[in-house]
Structures are given as structure tokens and as C-alpha cells.
Specification:
CATH class: Mainly Beta
Largest sheet: 7 strands, antiparallel
Oligomer: single chain
Number of strands: 9
Helix content: under 10%
CATH architecture: Ribbon
Strand content: 35-45%
Radius of gyration: 14 Å
């Protein structure tokens, strides 16, 4: 996966109420599955109802679950990325919205591809 999201970036987000039709490749912001106040930004790799094969493991997505992947380098031995490979599918109820525009850092300002 190509790295398009810079570290510590700031995004404009289309709220979930206005964008409920997500597709593969969309960058979403969602509430962390763990009991915390943090938000996570990841790219959708699997849609509701799909079976996803990643790193030799199959994940089965329910009718309102999304599989998300990060863009960090996973080539380091023993590295476990903090994405759906770690915490499983993201329930639709946790999605805040679709990130569509980076406004910080200024060197990366623009629409997310």
C-alpha cells in the first residue's frame, strides 16, 4: 500500500451521516475500538459481507463491518500493525466519517487520493 497519509496530519472529514456508502480505498476516521478517546485514520480494504485474506489469515466481515489497513511499514520482524489485522473489523457504528482533505502539514495540503 502506498504511503499517502503523513504522520500527525490533520484532515477535513465528511460526517458519516452524509457519507454512508464507503468503498475500498476510502480513508476513514473512526473511534478506537479500545476504551479510549482517540480517533484512528485508516484506509478501507474490505467491505461488509466480504471475506478478506491478508497475511495468510482470513477475516469474515459481518453486514456492517469494515476491514481497514494502515500505511505503516510492516517489513520489520515482529511488527504488528495497529489496524484490522490487530483489532479486527471496524463496526459501522464506530465510523465518524470519510477523510477527504489534508490541511496540515501545509507541504501536503490537498485532496486525499
Amino acid at each position: 500500500m502506498s504511503k499517502t497519509l503523513p504522520a500527525n496530519a490533520r484532515f477535513l472529514v465528511i460526517p458519516d451521516e452524509q457519507t454512508s456508502n464507503y468503498k475500498k480505498g476510502d480513508v476513514i476516521v473512526f473511534q478506537d475500538i479500545r476504551p479510549s478517546i482517540s480517533h484512528i485514520v485508516k484506509r478501507i480494504a474490505g467491505l461488509p459481507g466480504e471475506d478478506i485474506l491478508v497475511d495468510g489469515k482470513t477475516f469474515f466481515l459481518g453486514p456492517s463491518e469494515y476491514f481497514v489497513l494502515g500505511e505503516s511499514d510492516i517489513s520489520t520482524p515482529g511488527h504488528v500493525p495497529y489496524d484490522s489485522r490487530y483489532f479486527g473489523p471496524v463496526p459501522k457504528s464506530h465510523i465518524i466519517g470519510k477523510a477527504w482533505f489534508i490541511y496540515w502539514p501545509l507541504s501536503r495540503i490537498g485532496v486525499i487520493s
